[in-house]
C-alpha cells in the first residue's frame, strides 16, 4: 500500500463530515449566484451592449481618423468627400445601434408588443434619416472638393452649374427620403400623389410668386445668362453689379458702391439682362474737335492717329478702327476715334484709353494745331465802329 492510500485512510470522520459540509455550501452558493445571474441576465446583456458600443465607437473613430489623414495625400476627390460625409453619420449610427439594442433588452422583459413595434419603427426611421444625411453631406463635400481641385489645378470651372447640380441632387435626395419616411409611417404614397394632382393647382396659385422665383432660378441655371462673378446690368431696371450668389429664390448682386442687392429670380424672366463680363473687347469712342483754321491739317492728323492706333500694342487692329472727320461743329471740326482694346478689364481699359488720348493730343500739338473749345467771333461793321469812336 502506498503512502497516498495511507493518508486517505487516516482522515478522521469529523474532518470528512466538515469537508462534505463545505462542498454542499459551495454548491448552494454557486447555485444561488447562477439563479441570480439567470434571473438578471438582462443586466449582463445591457453592460455588454454598452461596452461593445463604446468600443466600436472608439475603434471606428480611430480608423476613420487614419483614413482621412491618408486621403489628404491623394488626388482623388471622391474618397475625401465620402470620408468627410460619412464620418459623423457612421459614428452616430453606432450610438443609435447601441441604444436600440439596449432598449430592446429592457423592453423584452415586459414583452410589450406595441413598444417593440415603435422601437422597430424608430430603427427604420433612423436608417432612412442617416442615409439621407450621408448622401446630402457627400453631395455638398463633393461640390466643395471639386471646385477646390479645379481652382488648385488652374482649371476653368463653372461654379454656377456645379451649385445647380448640387442643389438638384440634394432636393432629389430630400424628396426620396421624405417618401421613404412616409412609407415607414404607413402613409399611402399613391394616395398622396393623387392628392397632389388635385391640390397642386391650388397650391401653385397660392404660391405663384414663389414658384416664379424657383423657375426663374432654374432657367438661370439652365440657360446661364450669367454666373457667379459676372458683372451684369439691366436697361429695364436699376440693376447693376457683380453676381455673388444665385439661389433658388433670390440672386445676390453686389453693387459698385458695395451694397448688397437681392433680386427675386422671377424678375429675370421679364427683363433683359446685359452681361458686360462676356464682352470680347472694350470700345474707345470719342469725338475730338480742332479749330477751323487748322482744317488743312485734318488729313495729316487723322492719318497719324490711325497709324498710332494700328501700332498700339493694346489696340485690337482686327476689329473696326475708324478715324475720320464726322462733323462741322459750331466752333470746331470734329473727327471720330472709334477702336477696340484687347483687354476687357475695366481698370486696364481706363489706362489704355488715357494713353491713347494723350498720344492724340501730342499728335495735334506736333502738327501746330490746337483742340477747339466753344467760342464766338464777333464781326463789327467799320462804319459802326467809327460812329462808336466819335461818340
Task: Please provide a written account of the structure.
The protein is an alpha+beta fold and 391 residues long. Helix content is 62%, strand content 12%. The strands form 2 sheets. A 4-stranded antiparallel sheet has the order 1-2-3-4. Strands 5-7-6 form a 3-stranded antiparallel sheet, covered by helices on one side. Strand 6 (322-328) and strand 7 (333-341) form a beta hairpin. The termini are far apart. Residues 1-10 have low confidence and may be disordered.
Question: How is the secondary structure organized here?
Answer:
Blueprint: H1 3-9, H2 13-39, H3 41-71, H4 77-110, H5 113-152, H6 159-184, H7 189-206, H8 208-223, E1 231-234, E2 239-246, E3 250-254, E4 260-264, E5 282-290, H9 298-311, E6 322-328, E7 333-341, H10 346-366, H11 382-390
**Percent range for helical residues?**
55-70%
How many distinct folded domains?
3
Specify Rg, calculated over alpha carbons.
44 Å
Q: Which residues form runs of ≥5 with pLDDT under 50?
A: 1-10
Major β-sheet profile: 4 strands, antiparallel
List keywords for this structure.
elongated, 391 residues, Alpha-Beta Plaits, four-stranded antiparallel beta sheet, alpha+beta, SH3 type barrels, 3 domains, 12% strand, 62% helix
